[in-house]
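Section 5.1 Outputs to date
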Amino acid sequence: MHLFFIHTKKKIAKILGNSTETEALAPKKPKTKARLKPSIPSVPTVLKKWLEYCDKNGIAYNKSNISYWKGKIENRVTIEQQQAVYNAINKGWKDFYMVSIKESKYHKFLGKSLRMDRDCDTLLDISYRDKKYIYQFKNIKVTTTAPPIELFNRYGYTKIETKTVPIASQIKEKIFGVIKRF
């Protein structure tokens, strides 16, 4: 088929009988206030619980509130997020309040490593579930009942310290043993 004139998709559809004018001429439905459901995958689990609480208690929120709340919990340790949200839910508040980073008990441990049975490299997150602390490192996940202060006082170090820490005696003996053979 060869068309001599330029037609829009609408006119071509009308000529071929596939018209969508009924959809275009249909009366528009009134817009209802769309609420973002907590099941959205981009919403963190702690924020899901907060949104469920808001729904149950009739606390109105919109997309800007959700982005504001996401900003509040962004770059924060999960255990602090949990404490802030659960505290607000228990007290019946309309907003939750995060502790500042300077006053945080857990933020100072981020980036540190543990030298236990396995080397735990660079702490990324701490959460709390079923009376156990869950430490997420780059290479491993550790679950223990020991609080962060106790655990990091016993086994913790930073990458900067590894440059100044003296070599362990066993490793030192092995290195010098190999050198003496040659």
